Amino acid sequence: FSMYRKLMNMRESLSDQQSKDSEGLKMVKSALKVILETTIHSFINGFLPTVERTRRSAPDEDKSYLDGAVYLMGALLGKQKCSQMIACRTGKFVQNKMPGAQLAVMMAESMIPSSMLDWFGVVKQSVIERVDNCEADYFCTLSEEDQIEQNKKNL
Fold first, then answer.
1. pLDDT per residue over 116-155, tens digit each?
2. Distances in Å between the alpha carbon of 76 and those of 48, 71, 79?
3. What predicted TM-score, i.e. pTM, was given to this entire model?
4. 85 and 124 in contact (C-beta within 8 Å)?
5. Residue 70: which of 83, 88, 60, 59 has the closest Cα?
């Protein structure tokens, strides 16, 4: 979502300068604006839902790889739940691979920068809890329709 916001800010800055520009430059900017908006629209409404459908219909052995790719793409697009899902999965990985992970996480908390405390809090909670409930707690999807449907279920 942050990438989308940056592109929209760029579009606004192009619109602000429009009054100072010549007619030919206005035409070029208008063409670029249409191309940019079309690209964003097709990426969000075409590519991302296709990846989501492929992930849901994938066999179990391929699903974990696709899940990881979706979580990463979602986090890069600024989706909070996807970032939290990565943190939760990271915590479960540390819990399974490292003896005494709970103690290590508690000790490491004091060294974490304040900007990362929210993310690390999810990692810590995931390491301390015994049950694997990442999918139940954090719903990460690239499709806006799925997100709206999930929000309705939570109400």
1. 899 999 999 999 988 888 888 888 887 766 666 665 666 5
2. 13, 9, 7
3. 0.62
4. no
5. 83
